[in-house]
Each structure stands twice: as structure tokens, then as C-alpha cells.
Amino acid sequence: MSKSAKFGQTSADHLAIEPLRALKDDNHAAPADEARALRNFESFASDFLDHQRAFLRWAKTQQSDD
Amino acid sequence: MTDPEREARVRARAVLFAEVARRVHANLEQDGVQLVFRADAPVVLSAAYFLLNDAYKQRRAKPGSLTDDHKKAALTAVATMVVRPFAPMNPDAETFGATLANPIYAFACALSWLDPPASARRLPFDYLKRFYLSLLNVRMPSMARFIDLVNIDGRWQDYPPIAMSPSELDTIDDWVWRFFMLSSRKT
What we know:
The complex is a heterodimer of chains A (about 70) and B (about 190). Chain A has about 70 residues and is mainly alpha-helical.
């Protein structure tokens, strides 16, 4: 194995990264449907918001430990 | 897209931001968290969303293509943390709840696109804390001028397209990935 290769080398001009960055996504959805998003939110809002209140109570008790 | 089309798109999305804000605000007030949420915040948020969306898609999507739900969630969360629409009623006495109001709101709006499993909407507290700390660290310098101008005169309608830096693009990609993983999380 060659010992001439250096560790930790990065491509300064992002030769490897930029072509990857330019790859186009191919997963696209139906047109944005705000009514569907609102229905989704209503379906989980109570559960989610209850959890947030419990989290805030927990977080207050943890502040002095961090 | 013409300006009237753009404005209609922004106003349609603002309805979602407004309704989720109403619920999150009421929920936090139950625990005595006192917050201010400006009446124009939903349209400003929505305008910020589409500025980010259009800049992101320019680099990531085929022309004219739609945005999948994980990307909507990610762009929603990032736009919310750019605008940070909730402010403490008394800035000199900012509480823990007031600090976390924007990340909680960002998460709620983002999840609305995903119909999340229970395991995603009830993350263990320790992970939820890290999730919110990450949201609090979101920075999008390309949006700074937009925020400045909205703060000066309230106008969001005429702002030109933004150009995202590679690191801002990475920020969006990272949140797309997180929401993809969250929505794939088994109960």
C-alpha cells in the first residue's frame, strides 16, 4: 500500500461534491394541499401539544442539571 | 409565476401557518407563557417559505416540478426559524417556554405535511430537546435582508428571489433528511 497518500485531504474546489449537489431530485409530490395539511394537524394536534406541555415541565426541572 | 399568482400561493399557505399558530399559542398560554404573535406573521412566514422553496428547487429539482412532503416539512421548519414569529411579551423576562415557542411551532407546522406516526410526534424528551436546540441554531444569511425589510415596512410582496449558499443548501438538505427519518420511525 502506498505511503505517499496523505490523510485528511479534501477537495478544495469541491470537484467531487458539486456534481453530486447538482443531481436532480426525482421524488415529487402532488400539488401542495393546505387543506390536507390542516386535517393532518388536527388529527395529531391534541396529542402533540399535550406532549409539548409535558416536555416544557420536564425541561424546567432539567435546567439546573445542564 | 406572476405576482398575483405568487401572492395567492402565499396567502393560501398562510392559512395553515395561522391555524397552527393559534393552537400552539393557546397551548403555551395554558402554562402561563406570554407571547406576542403579529397579525401579519402568517403571510410573512409563507412568503419566507416560498423564497426558500424557490431557491432550493432551483438547485435541487427539475424545472416546474413539485416539492415532496419531506421537503415541504423541512422548508417549513427552516422558514419558521428564519422568521421566528413568536416573541416573548416581556423580552426582559424571557422564559423557557417563550424560548422554545418558535421551535415547537416550527415542528408542529412541519409535521402537518407528514401525518406523522405517534413515535414522531411524541419524541422522548431528551431527543426533543436536541431537536429544538438544532432548530434554534438555524441560520439562513440569504434571508437576512428580507427580514430586515419586513421589519422596516412590513412589505413582503415584492422581494426578489434569493440565492442560497452551499451551506444553506446543506442546512435544508439536513432537515429534509431528519423529517424523512422521523416520518419513517416505527412506533
